[in-house]
C-alpha cells in the first residue's frame, strides 16, 4: 500500500494516517537512466500510468510560482496570504491576491507538456490503458489541455467554497465580483483596496449569501480524505509513474513517487534539476518539461494504430 503523508506542508491528518504503514526502508537505486529508448520500452508495456505534476509544468506557460527568489505579491510571500488566519484577518487582501492570480491564469495557455499528457490519455484509453494526472497545481491547465482523469490535490483557482453553508462550485467570472474589478495589482507600492466584506464574493445559494473563499488547500490545512484515498488507489495500482515539474519537497506529494519506486515500479522524473528524490528513480530526464515530455509520451511503435 502506498504510504500517504497526509499533510499539507507538514500537518498530519491523524485520522487517515492511522491505517497506513510506513515502510522501514525506501528503495535506493543507482544514478537514474536518461535512456529515452529504454523508457519508451517501459512506457509501451504500462497499463496504468500515474503522472504527478507540479509547478514546473505551469511555469513553462508563464504562470507565477510564488516560490523562491522574487516569489512575492506586493510585499508578501504566498505563505503569508494563503492561510485561514490571513483570510480571517484580511479577506479583502487575500481576495485581491487570488483575483490577481485568476486574472493572470485567464491569459495563459497549456504548453506542450500539458498537451502531450492530454493526448497520451486520449490515445491510451482507446487501447484499454489508464492515465491519471495527480497534480499539485491549482490553475486547471491540465483540464484546459484536454486531460479528463485528473486529481487536483490542492483544489482550483476557479472554484469557490462558502464559509457559511460549505457549498463548493466552479466559478469562472472575470472579475469574480464587481468590487474586485481592476484590483489586485502586484506592485509593492500598491495600497490594499480594503474592500468591505459585504462586497467580496458571496454565496449564491438560496437564503445563504455567505462569504466565499477560494476552494484551494491553504498552508496549515489538511488535504481532503476523498482525494487522498483516490490518489492512493491510483498509486497502488500503477505500473509506471511519471514525476513532471515538481520539486519533490511539498508534502504529501513529495512521498508519492518514492513510495511507488520502493515497491519496484519504474518511476521517471522530468525536471529542470535534480530533486531530493531523484536517486530513488529509474529514469531522469533533465530539461524543460515541454521539451522532454512530448517525445517520451508520443505513440510507440508497439502501440496499435
TrEMBL record:
One function term, GO molecular function aspect: protein-malonyllysine demalonylase activity
Classification via PANTHER family: NAD-DEPENDENT PROTEIN DEACYLASE SIRTUIN-5, MITOCHONDRIAL-RELATED
InterPro entries linked: DHS-like_NAD/FAD-binding_dom, NAD-dep_sirtuin_deacylases, Sirtuin, Sirtuin_cat_small_dom_sf, Sirtuin_class_III, Ssirtuin_cat_dom
Catalysed conversion reaction: N(6)-malonyl-L-lysyl-[protein] + NAD(+) + H2O = 2''-O-malonyl-ADP-D-ribose + nicotinamide + L-lysyl-[protein]; N(6)-succinyl-L-lysyl-[protein] + NAD(+) + H2O = 2''-O-succinyl-ADP-D-ribose + nicotinamide + L-lysyl-[protein]; N(6)-glutaryl-L-lysyl-[protein] + NAD(+) + H2O = 2''-O-glutaryl-ADP-D-ribose + nicotinamide + L-lysyl-[protein]
Function: NAD-dependent lysine demalonylase, desuccinylase and deglutarylase that specifically removes malonyl, succinyl and glutaryl groups on target proteins. Has weak NAD-dependent protein deacetylase activity; however this activity may not be physiologically relevant in vivo.
Enzyme class name: transferase
GO cellular component: cytosol; mitochondrion; nucleus
Name of the protein in question: NAD-dependent protein deacylase sirtuin-5, mitochondrial
Gene: LOC104962438
Annotated binding of Zn(2+), by residue: 162, 165, 203, 208
Residue numbers binding substrate: 98, 101
Annotated compartments: Cytoplasm, Cytosol; Mitochondrion; Nucleus
Ranges where the Deacetylase sirtuin-type domain occurs: 29-303
Gene3D superfamilies attached to this UniProt entry: SIR2/SIRT2 'Small Domain, TPP-binding domain
Cofactor note: Binds 1 zinc ion per subunit.
EC number(s) from the headed UniProt entry: 2.3.1.-
Domain observations: In contrast to class I sirtuins, class III sirtuins have only weak deacetylase activity. Difference in substrate specificity is probably due to a larger hydrophobic pocket with 2 residues (Tyr-98 and Arg-101) that bind to malonylated and succinylated substrates and define the specificity.
Amino acid at each position: 500500500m502506498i504510504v500517504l503523508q497526509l499533510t499539507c506542508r507538514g500537518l498530519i491528518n491523524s485520522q487517515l494516517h492511522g491505517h497506513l504503514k510506513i515502510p522501514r526502508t525506501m528503495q535506493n537505486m543507482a544514478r537514474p537512466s536518461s535512456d529515452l529508448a529504454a523508457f519508451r520500452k517501459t512506457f509501451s508495456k504500462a497499463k496504468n500510468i500515474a503522472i504527478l505534476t507540479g509547478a514546473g509544468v505551469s511555469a513553462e506557460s508563464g504562470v507565477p510560482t510564488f516560490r523562491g527568489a522574487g516569489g512575492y505579491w506586493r510585499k508578501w510571500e504566498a505563505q503569508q496570504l494563503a492561510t485561514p488566519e490571513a483570510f480571517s484577518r484580511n479577506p479583502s487582501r487575500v481576495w485581491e491576491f487570488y483575483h490577481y492570480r485568476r486574472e493572470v491564469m485567464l491569459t495563459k495557455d497549456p504548453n506542450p507538456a500539458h498537451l502531450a499528457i492530454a493526448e497520451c490519455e486520449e490515445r491510451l484509453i482507446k487501447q484499454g490503458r489508464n492515465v491519471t494526472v495527480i497534480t499539485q497545481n491549482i490553475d486547471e491547465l491540465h483540464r484546459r489541455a484536454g486531460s479528463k482523469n485528473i486529481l487536483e490535490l490542492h483544489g482550483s483557482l476557479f472554484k469557490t467554497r462558502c464559509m457559511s453553508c460549505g457549498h463548493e462550485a466552479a466559478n469562472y467570472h472575470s472579475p469574480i465580483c464587481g468590487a474586485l474589478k481592476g484590483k489586485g495589482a502586484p506592485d509593492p507600492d500598491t495600497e490594499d483596496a480594503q474592500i468591505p466584506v459585504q462586497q467580496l464574493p458571496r454565496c449564491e445559494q438560496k437564503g445563504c449569501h455567505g462569504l466565499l473563499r477560494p476552494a484551494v488547500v491553504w498552508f496549515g490545512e489538511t488535504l481532503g480524505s476523498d482525494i487522498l484515498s483516490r490518489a492512493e488507489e491510483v498509486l497502488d495500482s500503477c505500473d509506471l509513474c511519471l514525476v513532471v515539474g515538481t520539486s519533490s519537497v511539498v508534502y504529501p506529494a513529495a512521498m508519492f513517487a518514492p513510495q511507488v519506486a520502493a515497491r519496484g515500479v519504474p518511476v521517471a522524473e522530468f525536471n529542470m534539476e535534480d530533486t531530493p528524490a531523484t536517486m530513488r528513480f529509474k529514469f531522469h530526464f533533465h530539461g524543460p518539461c515541454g521539451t522532454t515530455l512530448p517525445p517520451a509520451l508520443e505513440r510507440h511503435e508497439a502501440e496499435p494504430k
